Description:
The protein is α/β, with parallel strands linked by helices. GO terms for molecular function: ADP binding; DNA binding.
Amino acid sequence: MTPLGSLGGAAGFEFRLLGPLEVHLDGVQLEVGRTPVRALLACLLLEPNQVVPMDRLIDTLWDDEPPASARTIIQGYVSRLRKFFGTSGPEIITRAPGYLLRVDGDRIDAHRARSLINRAHGLEPAERSRLLTEALELWSGAVLADIAGSGLHRMVAPNLEELRLLALEERIAADLELGRHHQLIAELSTLVDQHPIRERLTGQLMLANYRAGHRAEAQARYHDLRHRLSHELGIDPGPELRELYEKLLRDDPGLRNHRSRTEPGLGIRRPVPAELPPAPAGFVGRRLEVGTLDAMLETREKGSSLITVLTGTAGVGKSALALTWSHRVAEEFPDGQLYASLRGFDPEHQPLTPGEALTSMLKALGVASDAIPVELDDRTALYRSLLAKRKVLVLLDNALDSDQVLPLLPGSAASLVVVTSRRRLDGLVVRSGARVLPLETLSTESAIELLDRAGVPGKSAAEPDAAAELAELCGGLPLALRIAAARLAANPARGVSDLVHELTDERNRLQALDIDDDADTSVRRAFDISYRSLPPVHAETFRMLGLIPGQTFTAHAVAALCDTDPASAQRRLRALALAHLVTEPEPDRFGMHDLLRAYARELPAATGESDVEALRRLLEHYLCAADHARRFLRPARDELDFSAQGDHRPEVGSRSQALEWFDAEWPNLVAAVRAAKLAGLHDMAWPLARLQFNYLMVRCPWEDWIRVYTDGAESARAVGDPVGKVLMSAGLGVACARSGKLDEALAHYEESYRIAVQTGDSERLAMTQVNLSSALFRLRRYEEAKIHSKDALKVYRSLGDRYFVAGALNNLAMVEQVNGELEAALRHLREAEDLYREADDLETLAMVLNNCGEVSIELGNLDDGERFHHEALEVARQCGSAVRQASANLGLGDAARLRGDIAVACTRWETALSIFEAEGSPQVREVRQRLDEAG
C-alpha cells in the first residue's frame, strides 16, 4: 500500500491533397477510412520522410482537449494505415518523437506541385508557363475538402491556397511576357473579381488591358482597387502598383510587349573567370549539408532553382563550407566561377552595393570599364545576358539581405548560386525560389576531428574525455574550435585538460577564445559584428536574454523580462532568429548558443535599470504561470497565491495543458529557483520551489526535486520564513520517501515538525504529522505512525478541512491494514476516496484507489480489487502519473496471479517494472522479486 506523501517505392501509390484526400493504387481510388485516420495520413503526407512529432499529431487531430488515451488512439490509427499500405506501399516508421512516412515525394500532388513551381524559376517564359500550368492542374478542388473544419484543414488549406495563387500569378506573368495579353483579359477579370484586394492580379489585369489598347479600363481597375483598399482597410495600393499606374499615365515604353536584349558591346571578350578564394585547411564534417548541396547540383538538368543560402550564426563555418564545396565541384562549371565578398557584416567597411559587385563581376566576365552601364538595371541586364546559357558558379559571401543579392542572380538555370549570410534571406526564397540550408554547430565527433586537424594531431586521442569536454565548451562552433586548436598548437606542452580548466569559468571563456596577436580572430569579435548590426531595441533584447537562467525561453517569458507585451517579444525573437542570434528548436520556443549566452551576459546595459529588477520581473512571470498551472494538477493546499502577478500568463486551461507547460518549462524552473537564490531574491526562490510540488508529485524527477527544494530551503532559512521552512523541509521529505531514502525522509519530516511546533499553527502541525506517519509506517514503526495519524485526523476534523482529513485517513488505513483490521482500513480508504474525488485531486485519488484494490484483494474480493486497480489505472492516465499507473499494473498482476493466470500476471508486472525503472522507484526490487518467483 502507498502512503501519502533510401525512400520507399510505394509501388503504384499516388496521393492527392490538393482537393479531397485521395489515395490511388495503379489508377484505382482506394477507401482510406474514417476522417481521423485520413487526417493522420494527411499530416504524414504533408511532411514526407520527416519525423512528425506525436505532440503535433495530437494537437492537429484534436482541436479541444485531447482524450487521455490520445497516444494510444494514434498508435491504433498508424496500425490501420500500415495494414492499409501492406508490404509494397509506403512505410510508416516509428522514430522518436513521432512517426516518419517514407515515400517518394513525387507521388504526393502537393510536393509535386511545389517541385514544378520551384523548377519554373528562372526559365524562359514558354517553359515557365508550361511547368506552372502543369502544377496548377494538380489542384482538383478545395484543399482537403473532406476534412474541412479540422485543425489540420485550418492550418494547411490557407497555405496551399496561397501557393496556388502565387503559381497562378507567376504563370500569368510568363504569359504576359509571351504576348498573350488578349487571351488573359477574361481570365484575369474573373480572378480579380474573386480576389479583389490582391494587388498583383489587379496589376496584371491593368497591364493586359493596356497592351490590348484598353487604357481607360486599365486605369479604372486601379481606381477600383484604391477605393476598396481605402474604404475597407484604410490603406493605399503598394509602391509597385502605384509605379505601374504612373507608367500607364505617361505611356512608359517599358510597358510595351518586347523583351530587351542586351547585345555585347565593344570591348567584351569571353574569359573564364576563376575567382574562388582558397578553401580553408582542415575542413571536417558537414556530410549532410554537402549531400544536400550535391543533390541540388543534380537537379540542374531538371531546370530546378539553383540558388542556395547557407545561413547560420557567426563562426559556424558558412564560408568554409561554401568554399570547400565550390572548389570540389568547380569542374562542373566550365564557364567559370565568380566570387564576391558582399561585406554584409564587416565592421571596418560598408556593405558592398549591388552596383559595385556587378562592376567587379562584369570586369571578370571581360567587359571593359568604359562599356559597363551606369544604371543598376542596365548592369544587371548585361550581367544576365552574358551568363545566359553559360554554366557559371556564383559564390556570394557574407550577404547582408535579399535586396543586396537579387540583382546579382543570373537569369537562367544553367548557372548555380551559393549565398552565405548570418540572416535567413527569406526574400530570396519568396522571390527567387532559393533553398535555405541552415548550418548547425558541429557534432562532438566532428568537433574533436577539427581540434586534431587544426591543432596538434593525436592530442585529442591522448585525452579523449578532455577533448570531448573541450568540444562541448566550444559549443561545436568551428571558429571557437579553431581558436582552441591554435592555442594548443602554440604550446605543444599544454594539455587539453589545461585548456578545459581555463574555459570552464564562463566569465573568462570568451577571453580564452581570442588569439592574442590577431585582433580579427576572436569569437567575441565575430559576435560583436552581428550584435552591432541590430536595431537598438533588438540589441537590448539580445543582451537581456543573457539574464535568463534556463536554456530555452518563450515570448511570454521574454515579454516579462523586457517589460513589453508577448506579441512584441515574439517579433523581437523572430528578428533575432533571422539574424541567427537565437534559435527556434521548436515552434514558439527559443534558445541560444552557450557562447552567445556568455557574450550577451558581458554586454553593458543600455538603460539605467538594474539586471536584478529585470530578473525579478522574469521570476514574477514564472511564479504567476506556475501558480496558475499547478491548480489544474492538484488542489493548491497552501497560502501562496500569485495569480494577480504578471500580465502575460501563458494559456493553460486544462490538466493536460498544465502538464505540457511544466514539462516544457521544467529545466527553466529548476534554473530559475537557483538564480533567485544566488541573486538574493529569497522571497521569490522558496515560493517558486513550492509551486512545483503538484507537478513533482505527478512526474517525480527525484534529483531535480531534491535540488530545487534544497535551494528553496536555503532561501527560506535566509529570510527566516517559518512557512517556507516547514514547506521546504516537508517537500524534501516527500522526495526522499518516494525515492526510497526513508531515514533521510524522516529527518526532513522531523525538522518540518519541529518548526511547525514552534509556530503554534495547528493546521501546519497536523500536516507534518501526516508526513511523519507515512515515513514511520514505511520504517515499520506502526504504533508511532498510528498516533500521528490519529492526532492529525482529529485536528483536521475539528478544522473542517476535508482535503487533509483524506490524507490522515489514508495513513491510518495503512496501519490498520498491517494490523489485520482490513474492514476498518477499507472503510477509511473509501471515505478518503470520496474526499479526493470532491477535491479533484486525481494523482492522490489514483493512489487511494490502488490502496483500496490492495486491501480488497487481501479480503479475498478479487473482483473488487481488480475494479479498483483498473479505475486507478484510468485516473492515473488522466492525470499523467506514471508511478500510479505502475502501481495499478502491479496490483492487477497480483490479482491475476491469485486467479492462476501467471502469463497475464507477468505481463502486468513487466509493465510496472519498466515504469518503475524509468522513474527510479525503489519498488523495482519488489516487482523483480514477483517475476523471479513466477519463473
